[in-house]
Each structure stands twice: as C-alpha cells, then as structure tokens.
Amino acid sequence: MIDALKIATEDLYQTFSKYHLPSSMSGCPCCVSETDVSTLHSKPLRLLSGEDISRYAWKAMTTWGSVDDFRYYLPRLLELASTGGWDIDNSVILGKLSYGNWKSWAISEQENISNFLKSWWEYEINFIPYFNPDLLLDLLVHINDLELMLGCWKLESNSLGFRNFIDLIEDNYWDINQENRKFKILTRPQLNLFLEWINSNSTLLEKAFFEFEKTNAALSTRISNCLDMIDSKI
C-alpha cells in the first residue's frame, strides 16, 4: 500500500503535467506579498517544501491564482498532505478540491484524484499509528463510499490497522452509536453501516484477546474494554 500511494502520486504528477508553472498569478495585495510569490517560484514543483507552499495552500483560488494554477500545484499539495510534509490541517487542501469543483474536471483528472485519495486512505489507516476520524470524514466527502473505505481497512491481529481499529472503538464507538457529534456528516444509513462493520468484526477482537492475553497484557485489556463497549452498546 505504500507502493500504491507512491504510484498514485506519480500518476498525479503525470496527469497534471499539462499545466505549467504560471509566470504570474493574480493575488490580493493585502494577502499575497512579493516574498510569498518569489518563494513559491524559487524551486521546481517537486522540491517545494511544506513551508514553501503552505501559504499558497491557504490562499489558492480564493485570493491567489486560478483553478488552472491550483491544478499545476495540486500534485505537490496532495503529496505533502498525504506524507505529513507540513503542519497544515488536511481539511485545507481537501477543502480546496471542493472549492475548485474537481468533480467537473476532465475524467482522467477525476480518476487520478479519486485513485490517489483511496490510496492515501489505505496508507493512512494501515500504516500510520492512531486512527484519525477527521481524515476519514474529510476523505469521505470526496470518495463518497464508506463501504469501500471500510473494506480497505486491514484487521489482522498483528497489523497496525488492527491497532487503529481498537483506537476507533475506544475513542469513538460511543459517539457513533449514541451521540453522533463528531460523525454528524454521516447519514443514518452510513452510521448504521459503520456500526454494523464494527460489530461484525467483534469476533476478531475476541480471537485477538486470547492471542495477546499472555504476551501483551496492556493490549489484551484494551481489547477487552472494546468488547465490553460493543456488548453494552455504549
């Protein structure tokens, strides 16, 4: 899945290579300084750091540049977002996709973005420790297929995906099942699907509990707590 993300990233660069470095970009003089502009043009696209491009990420299309300018920078923006290459919240760049109305772009561009977002999610949920509900919800807006996203989640007991499954239940099960504040963008059918998926995988938790009972007491305790939450529906 790491390789899949790398391939999807390269596909983005290839697909959007038809857009060229803008010689100039209109920008609000109150928001965009000459230093901001020179920094953005100081390096080849792939070498721009998060610090170099972060200001543009915030201002893209709203007060700095056009949609075509954004498409030129998009591969680097998404690459940095997916690899933790900056301190900007991922919702910023994903929100810019919505602002740019990417689902009206050329089919090849839409397909490559969709494939990248799916690969990003697979990488995040299976290789990055600690479940991030905000990223799931931000990506769901664009992928628009919760069942597909849950299907990407690897739950072998020795996997990082399984640890993230435990994080999900410990920190979010009550909210999904009862309160629905953090997950309020989910429709009732999506919430039901999410709960059904969690509950249907409780047998994996039971097996893992016995697997780790004598070798990892802390983990087995966490698993037991998750099972109690599911059993009591809280």
Describe it for me?
It is elongated and about 60 Å long. It folds into two domains: 2-123, no CATH class; 154-232, no CATH class. By secondary structure, the chain is mainly α. The chain starts with a helix and ends with a helix. Helices cover 67% and strands 0% of the residues.
Secondary-structure element pattern, one letter each: HHHHHHHHHHHH
Average per-residue pLDDT, rounded, comes to: 92
β-sheet strand percentage: under 5%
Tally of DSSP helical segments = 12
The beta-strand count equals: 0
Q: List low-pLDDT spans.
A: none
- Rg (CA only): 20 Å
Structure classification:
mainly alpha
Domains, number = 2
Topology, element by element:
Layout: H1 2-15, H2 34-40, H3 50-59, H4 67-83, H5 90-99, H6 107-127, H7 133-143, H8 146-151, H9 160-179, H10 188-200, H11 202-212, H12 217-232
Helix pairs in contact: 1-4, 1-6, 5-7, 6-7, 9-10, 9-12, 11-12
Task: Give descriptors for this structure.
mainly alpha, 234 residues, 12 helices
Nutshell version of this structure?
The chain is mostly helical and 234 residues long. The chain contains twelve helices and no strands.
